[in-house]
């Protein structure tokens, strides 16, 4: 009998029922909830007289609509104020624990799950948010769902799904110094295109992936959705166990030993097969920078934007018009207006340490506004305890409070029309950071260097001497 993949092992263990048409009812171990996709779902179960089936398996926080300054005051924007207030009311009605503004566990939903030890290997995890794929870094099946599915999970703790195909992407070799997890995933999206993994669940493997920290693995899995994948996952190993050990909600004592023994049984077996296998070399990856309006439109930092006709992307001219860029132009040297360091892709403590390591003792470009937004209250607290906030403020950066912030124009942190924003987030769609805003996706290190220079630079030749690898 052929061995099983990590994905198949988790999926098969969670099937409650298979319908005659092949769809399957999956049990969901953890449901993350936030203010944007939950109001209609709460209303739906209320209208049907249903209750939340397993309140203890819901984790609720406010992130998309929250301001990142003065979180102790009423939210200024009326729509955001209402969204956040409605979430709190719904949690009170349904008896759910709520990590609202001011709570020590509040933060971006995909940052708090792992840091609270709620995200563990072998689980099924859903959330009404595309970037739920982040949790796959722990060896979970984690994916985003729509509002009506949020109601389904509230009412039943189950979800009807069709099993996706599986793909393995192997990245072997050694990453060049300063090439980060964000560069890996931008490179992969560039190679596959934004639809290249549609219909698949992707397992990332290979020595370059194994060598990543949990934060780096989360960055890779986070952006799986940007190449069309249903989700991404990475086999749990000692790095995973070390990250989880001692966290709130992690097993303790003999339960820990039992859990680790189970987690060690999860990785894909040697003779297991995938519907598609792709392989890349880590040495080929360089710091990446996007130039267009989807995350696949990127170049290596020292390459020019493709000429029309050199790329299969038919929307290139339209994207470049929006971005105010030209075919053949270098992104390196492009002057910028804003730098946003944050989001569920790159707002964990490791990301902030990397930025601080580069920035310490330097001052930002006077014409560039720089926001550093920690991913959660715990990240904020940790950053302050390490003095990172002081490094940022001394450099002229604004170190703010946790939330999704300028990842999307849904709260007070918007980028003005026409302005260029170098961003560590995950989407550069038209208007994503505010109407008319022009987003350039990069790694935290490239963002830090851009903040100091006021333009896009290759940090390897710009002040690399003061970057201490962390
Ligand atoms: S940081 Fe951005 S991508 Fe992540 S959950 Fe918030 S809005 Fe979504």
Question: Helix and strand layout, with pairings?
Answer:
Elements: H1 6-13, E1 15-18, E2 24-27, E3 30-33, H2 39-47, E4 58-61, H3 78-94, E5 98-99, H4 109-115, E6 124-127, E7 141-144, H5 147-156, E8 158-161, E9 165-172, H6 181-192, E10 200-205, H7 207-210, H8 214-222, E11 231-234, H9 238-244, H10 253-264, E12 276-281, E13 288-290, E14 298-300, H11 316-323, E15 338-341, H12 349-359, E16 369-372, H13 377-385, H14 388-394, E17 398-399, E18 420-423, E19 438-441, H15 444-453
Parallel strand pairs: 3-4, 3-6, 4-5, 6-7, 9-10, 9-12, 10-11, 15-16, 15-18, 16-17, 18-19
Antiparallel strand pairs: 1-2, 2-8, 13-14
The structure holds iron/sulfur cluster.
Iron/sulfur cluster binds near residues 64, 129, 408 and 426.
Give an overview of the whole structure:
With 470 residues, the protein is of the alpha/beta class. The chain has three domains: 6-161, Aconitase, domain 3 (2-Layer Sandwich), CATH 3.30.499.10; 165-247 and 260-283, Aconitase, Domain 2 (3-Layer(aba) Sandwich); 307-466, Aconitase, domain 3 (2-Layer Sandwich), CATH 3.30.499. The protein is built from 15 helices and 19 strands. The strands form five sheets. Strands 5-4-3-6-7 form a five-stranded parallel beta sheet, with helices on both faces. A five-stranded parallel beta sheet has the order 17-16-15-18-19, covered by helices on one side. Strands 11-10-9-12 form a four-stranded parallel beta sheet. Helix 6 (181-192) packs parallel to helix 8. The longest helix has 17 residues, at 78-94. The radius of gyration is 21 Å and the shape is globular. The model is unreliable at 464-470 (pLDDT under 50). Residues 63-64, 108-110, 129, 131, 343-344, 404, 407-408, 425-426 line the site of iron/sulfur cluster (SF4). Iron/sulfur cluster (SF4) binds next to helix 4.
């Amino acid at each position: 009998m052929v061995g099983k993949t990590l994905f198949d092992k988790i999926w098969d263990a969670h099937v409650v029922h298979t319908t005659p048409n092949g769809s399957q009812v999956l049990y969901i171990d953890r449901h993350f909830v936030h203010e944007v996709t939950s109001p209609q779902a709460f209303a739906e179960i209320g209208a049907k007289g249903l209750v939340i089936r397993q309140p203890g398996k819901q984790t609720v926080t406010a992130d998309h609509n929250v301001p990142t300054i003065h979180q102790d005051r009423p939210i200024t924007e009326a729509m955001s104020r209402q969204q956040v207030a409605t979430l709190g009311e719904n949690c009170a009605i349904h008896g759910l624990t709520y990590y609202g503004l001011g709570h020590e566990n509040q933060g971006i939903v995909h940052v708090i799950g792992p840091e609270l030890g709620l995200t563990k290997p072998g689980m099924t995890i859903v959330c009404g948010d595309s970037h739920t794929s982040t949790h796959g870094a722990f060896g979970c099946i984690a994916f985003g769902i729509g509002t009506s599915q949020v109601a389904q999970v509230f009412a039943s703790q189950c979800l009807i799904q069709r099993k996706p195909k599986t793909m393995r992407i192997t990245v072997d070799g050694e990453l060049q110094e300063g090439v980060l997890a964000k560069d890996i995933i931008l490179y992969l999206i560039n190679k596959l295109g934004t639809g290249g993994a549609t219909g698949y669940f992707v397992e990332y493997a290979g020595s370059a992936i194994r060598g990543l920290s949990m934060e780096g693995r989360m960055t890779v899995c986070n952006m799986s959705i940007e190449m069309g994948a249903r989700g991404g996952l990475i086999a749990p190993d000692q790095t995973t166990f070390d990250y989880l050990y001692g966290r709130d909600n992690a097993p303790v004592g003999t339960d820990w030993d039992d859990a680790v023994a189970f987690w060690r049984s999860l990785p894909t077996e040697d003779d297991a097969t995938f519907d598609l296998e792709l392989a890349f070399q880590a040495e080929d990856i360089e710091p990446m920078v996007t130039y267009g309006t989807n995350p696949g439109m990127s170049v290596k930092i020292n390459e020019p934007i493709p000429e029309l006709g050199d790329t299969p992307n038919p929307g290139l001219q339209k994207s470049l018009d929006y971005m105010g860029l030209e075919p053949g132009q270098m992104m390196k040297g492009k002057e910028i207006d804003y730098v946003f360091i944050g989001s569920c892709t790159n707002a964990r403590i490791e990301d902030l340490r990397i930025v601080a390591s580069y920035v310490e003792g330097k001052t930002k470009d006077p014409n560039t506004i720089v926001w550093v937004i920690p991913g959660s209250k715990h990240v904020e607290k940790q950053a302050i305890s390490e003095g990172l906030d002081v490094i940022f403020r001394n450099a002229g950066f604004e170190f703010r409070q946790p939330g999704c912030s300028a990842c999307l124009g849904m709260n007070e942190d918007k980028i003005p029309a026409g302005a260029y924003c170098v961003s560590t987030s995950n989407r550069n769609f038209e208007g994503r950071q505010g109407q008319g805003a022009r987003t350039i996706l990069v790694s935290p290190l490239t963002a830090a260097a851009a903040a100091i220079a006021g333009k896009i630079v290759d940090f390897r030749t710009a002040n690399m001497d003061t970057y201490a690898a962390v």
